[in-house]
């Protein structure tokens, strides 16, 4: 039984189908990143998980309980918003306490003057204050508790928003691009912190992001969404190395994966520049396919060797690595690759080179974008 | 060596860059004054001077048509606080404001919330509620005169169908102020609604989502947690404007009751108008105007001192 699950969720606005039969099941304490370009429906899916929106079809359940029809207030979900959505008139401490006061105090007890007269309220308020203090301490924001959001930096607000989500011990964490308003440095730092908080809380988490690096580095599993469809949900390494769909391959990884249009020849082989890139592609001779190769799996060799002849068009120095852009001789195809700076010290734009593709590096996709299985995995790139 | 230093720093002992900066700053200051001059002149001529003139008049016994007048100090003010008409007028204006301002703020907020929560017919309702603001109150007063007429008016006709004997709305001293207040509320609700609508659209949607997730289940809880505090600055502004407008009530009094019956709808502006334009006692009317201005200013200062700090959170 999964701790939190979305089953067969579909939703349309008018004729456009923005969510198409999406099923995601999160295990106990599992961190799932929903990643995709903007407009792919990931935020809508998160809102449906929170109960802020409703699907046309499908169900949401938490700990085996069907909560599809429940109000967000009853679901015990915690959500962190991109804009943090802190209440600007309340101090940090009051902001963090809101979920607890709403749950633990009755409407009468929350009233300004009458509330004080109700027996038991004082003790419950002390308990709430203690919980707020503990949560704030764990996020190291105890010194901000008396400040209002207007007097805090973006990073501090972010922490208060996280504290507000953590304080209630929710059934599921929902995070909607919580890092995208932070500057680059802070973002990388906070990434690690969120993962650590999640590990300690042990609560299933759905984390929406458009940043594939964030998704890969944080999540136990990554769900890639495109145009309202869930293309693949898998561990980060499998999403990267073994994408099920050409769009997954293209979305994940930076620089972008190299993609070539090709047709198969004898034995289901794909030949480029006199080299067999891959063999054993299913289907008759002449099947149109797309070949995708990760940039770091192409090696740069001196011109004239056995490999694909190409010309260097541009170099991008990134410190620990260099991105080399090349044009393939005699075709309009181009390849991008990653190399160590010392390996390309002598390379300049306009220089002819030879490209060598790692054996088994080619991913083959059919016309429909789906991965095509290989009959015989290739061992060594062969020259013909 | 010292000669070279003298050349570099120039005769005044400052570096050329410093001197250039100082010259530029001076030039900029001059341009700033030139650009601001027309606005300053207009404020002086159109706002500050007339106000000052009113204050000076209030210290004289000037009457329109007479060539001669004397400065009589604060005698006008002394007379004011013994003047029964003025005191009644002060009391009536306070009462009228105490009815109209809160009601028009609350109803304006209510209407804005209703319109905001429903997408259908939003433009229609917005226009409909705004119509009284755009229409001429003097013209609309004739309609109210008909509506509230004791014998031929539809209001009393409906009341009598229900078996209630309707009062002489505008003609009886016990109901006239309430009748005027109803018209005042009718007129200002639309304006307040438009301001509240603008305030409502400025509230981030994510706050409502956060409130729902945090456990604010009913719309009342969300109103208390998000809408009301976020509308703080708007509410302060709307309340201020409503009070000012209520204190300034004149058109309906002039067209419908002329302060009567028996001074029971005597309000500040009406009294000032009577003294200044009917009895032509400019000095005395000016003293009233000064009091009127002082009341408004004190109200505004109080409001902003007390409330402003509580509604702006940044």
TrEMBL record, chain A:
<dbReference type="InterPro" id="IPR008995">
    <property type="entry name" value="Mo/tungstate-bd_C_term_dom"/>
</dbReference>
<dbReference type="InterPro" id="IPR013611">
    <property type="entry name" value="Transp-assoc_OB_typ2"/>
</dbReference>
<dbReference type="GO" id="GO:0016887">
    <property type="term" value="F:ATP hydrolysis activity"/>
</dbReference>
<feature type="domain" description="ABC transporter">
    <location>
        <begin position="4"/>
        <end position="252"/>
    </location>
</feature>
<dbReference type="Pfam" id="PF08402">
    <property type="entry name" value="TOBE_2"/>
</dbReference>
<dbReference type="GO" id="GO:0055052">
    <property type="term" value="C:ATP-binding cassette (ABC) transporter complex, substrate-binding subunit-containing"/>
</dbReference>
<keyword id="KW-0547">Nucleotide-binding</keyword>
<keyword id="KW-1278">Translocase</keyword>
<dbReference type="Pfam" id="PF00005">
    <property type="entry name" value="ABC_tran"/>
</dbReference>
<dbReference type="InterPro" id="IPR017871">
    <property type="entry name" value="ABC_transporter-like_CS"/>
</dbReference>
<comment type="similarity">
    <text>Belongs to the ABC transporter superfamily.</text>
</comment>
<dbReference type="InterPro" id="IPR003439">
    <property type="entry name" value="ABC_transporter-like_ATP-bd"/>
</dbReference>
<keyword id="KW-1003">Cell membrane</keyword>
<protein>
    <submittedName>
        <fullName>Glycerol-3-phosphate ABC transporter ATP-binding protein</fullName>
    </submittedName>
</protein>
<dbReference type="InterPro" id="IPR027417">
    <property type="entry name" value="P-loop_NTPase"/>
</dbReference>
<dbReference type="GO" id="GO:0005524">
    <property type="term" value="F:ATP binding"/>
</dbReference>
<keyword id="KW-0067">ATP-binding</keyword>
<dbReference type="InterPro" id="IPR003593">
    <property type="entry name" value="AAA+_ATPase"/>
</dbReference>
<dbReference type="InterPro" id="IPR047641">
    <property type="entry name" value="ABC_transpr_MalK/UgpC-like"/>
</dbReference>
<dbReference type="InterPro" id="IPR012340">
    <property type="entry name" value="NA-bd_OB-fold"/>
</dbReference>
<keyword id="KW-0813">Transport</keyword>
<dbReference type="GO" id="GO:0140359">
    <property type="term" value="F:ABC-type transporter activity"/>
</dbReference>
From TrEMBL, chain B:
<dbReference type="GO" id="GO:0005886">
    <property type="term" value="C:plasma membrane"/>
</dbReference>
<feature type="transmembrane region" description="Helical">
    <location>
        <begin position="127"/>
        <end position="148"/>
    </location>
</feature>
<protein>
    <submittedName>
        <fullName>ABC transporter permease</fullName>
    </submittedName>
</protein>
<dbReference type="Pfam" id="PF00528">
    <property type="entry name" value="BPD_transp_1"/>
</dbReference>
<comment type="similarity">
    <text>Belongs to the binding-protein-dependent transport system permease family.</text>
</comment>
<keyword id="KW-0813">Transport</keyword>
<feature type="transmembrane region" description="Helical">
    <location>
        <begin position="278"/>
        <end position="302"/>
    </location>
</feature>
<feature type="transmembrane region" description="Helical">
    <location>
        <begin position="176"/>
        <end position="204"/>
    </location>
</feature>
<feature type="transmembrane region" description="Helical">
    <location>
        <begin position="225"/>
        <end position="247"/>
    </location>
</feature>
<dbReference type="InterPro" id="IPR035906">
    <property type="entry name" value="MetI-like_sf"/>
</dbReference>
<feature type="transmembrane region" description="Helical">
    <location>
        <begin position="35"/>
        <end position="59"/>
    </location>
</feature>
<keyword id="KW-0812">Transmembrane</keyword>
<keyword id="KW-1003">Cell membrane</keyword>
<dbReference type="GO" id="GO:0055085">
    <property type="term" value="P:transmembrane transport"/>
</dbReference>
<keyword id="KW-1133">Transmembrane helix</keyword>
<keyword id="KW-0472">Membrane</keyword>
<feature type="transmembrane region" description="Helical">
    <location>
        <begin position="95"/>
        <end position="115"/>
    </location>
</feature>
<dbReference type="InterPro" id="IPR000515">
    <property type="entry name" value="MetI-like"/>
</dbReference>
<feature type="domain" description="ABC transmembrane type-1">
    <location>
        <begin position="90"/>
        <end position="303"/>
    </location>
</feature>
<dbReference type="InterPro" id="IPR051393">
    <property type="entry name" value="ABC_transporter_permease"/>
</dbReference>
């Amino acid at each position: 039984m999964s701790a939190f699950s979305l089953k067969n969720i579909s939703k349309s606005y008018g004729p456009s189908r923005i969510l198409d039969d999406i099923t995601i099941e999160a295990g106990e304490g599992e961190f799932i990143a929903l990643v995709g370009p903007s407009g792919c429906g990931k935020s809508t899916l998160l809102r449906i998980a929170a109960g802020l929106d409703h699907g046309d079809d499908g169900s949401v359940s938490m700990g085996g309980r069907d909560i599809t029809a429940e109000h967000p207030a009853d679901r015990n979900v915690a959500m962190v918003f991109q804009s943090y959505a802190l209440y600007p008139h309340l101090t940090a401490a009051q902001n963090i306490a809101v979920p607890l006061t709403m749950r633990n105090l009755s409407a009468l007890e929350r009233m300004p003057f009458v509330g004080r007269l109700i027996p038991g309220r004082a003790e419950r308020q002390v308990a709430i204050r203690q919980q707020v203090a503990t949560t704030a301490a764990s996020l190291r924001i105890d010194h901000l508790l008396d400040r209002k959001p207007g007097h805090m930096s973006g990073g501090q607000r972010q922490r208060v928003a996280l504290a507000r989500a953590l304080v209630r011990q929710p059934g599921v964490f929902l995070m909607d691009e919580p890092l995208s308003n932070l500057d680059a440095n802070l973002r990388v730092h906070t990434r690690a912190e969120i993962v650590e908080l999640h590990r300690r809380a042990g609560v299933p988490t759905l984390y929406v992001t458009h940043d594939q690096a964030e998704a890969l580095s944080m999540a136990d599993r990554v769900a890639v969404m495109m145009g309202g469809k869930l293309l693949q949900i898998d561990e980060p390494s499998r999403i990267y190395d073994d994408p099920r769909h050409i769009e997954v391959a293209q979305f994940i990884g930076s620089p972008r994966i190299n993609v070539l249009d090709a047709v198969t020849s004898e034995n289901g082989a794909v030949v480029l520049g006199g080299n067999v890139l891959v063999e054993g592609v299913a289907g008759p001779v002449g099947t149109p396919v797309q070949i995708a190769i990760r940039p770091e799996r192409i090696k740069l060799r001196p011109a004239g060797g056995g490999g694909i002849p190409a010309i260097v068009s541009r170099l991008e120095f990134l410190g620990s690595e260099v991105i080399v852009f090349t044009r393939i001789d005699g075709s309009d195809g181009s390849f991008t690759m990653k190399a160590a700076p010392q390996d390309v010290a002598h390379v300049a734009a306009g220089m002819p080179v030879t490209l060598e593709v790692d054996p088994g590096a080619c991913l083959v996709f059919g016309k429909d974008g789906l991965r095509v299985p290989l009959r015989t995995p290739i061992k060594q790139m062969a020259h013909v | 060596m010292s000669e070279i230093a003298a050349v570099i720093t120039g005769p005044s002992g400052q570096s050329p860059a410093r001197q250039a900066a100082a010259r530029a700053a001076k030039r900029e200051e001059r341009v700033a004054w030139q650009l601001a001059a027309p606005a300053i002149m207009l404020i002086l001529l159109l706002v500050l001077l007339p106000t000052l003139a009113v204050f000076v008049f209030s210290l004289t016994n000037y009457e329109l048509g007479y060539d001669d007048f004397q400065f009589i100090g604060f005698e006008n003010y002394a007379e004011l606080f013994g003047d029964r008409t003025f005191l009644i007028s002060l009391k009536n204006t306070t009462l009228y404001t105490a009815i109209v301002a809160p009601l028009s703020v609350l109803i304006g907020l209510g209407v804005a919330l209703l319109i905001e929560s429903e997408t259908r017919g939003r433009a229609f309702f917005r226009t409909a509620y705004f119509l009284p603001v755009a229409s001429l109150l003097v013209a609309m007063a004739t309609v109210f005169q008909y509506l509230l007429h004791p014998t031929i008016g539809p209001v009393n006709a409906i009341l009598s169908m229900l078996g209630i004997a309707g009062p002489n709305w505008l003609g009886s001293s016990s109901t006239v102020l309430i009748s005027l207040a109803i018209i005042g509320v009718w007129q200002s609700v639309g304006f307040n609604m438009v301001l509240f609508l603008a305030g409502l659209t400025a509230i981030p949607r994510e706050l409502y989502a956060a409130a729902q997730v945090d456990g604010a289940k009913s719309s009342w809880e969300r109103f208390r947690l998000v809408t009301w505090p976020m509308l703080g600055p708007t509410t302060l502004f709307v309340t201020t404007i409503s009070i000012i407008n209520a204190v300034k009530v004149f058109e309906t009094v002039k067209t419908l009751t002329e302060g009567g019956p028996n001074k029971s709808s005597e309000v500040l502006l009406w009294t000032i108008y009577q003294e200044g334009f009917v009895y032509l006692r400019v000095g005395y009317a000016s003293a009233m105007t000064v009091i009127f201005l002082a009341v408004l200013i004190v109200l505004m200062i109080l409001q902003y001192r007390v409330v402003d700090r509580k509604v702006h959170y940044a």
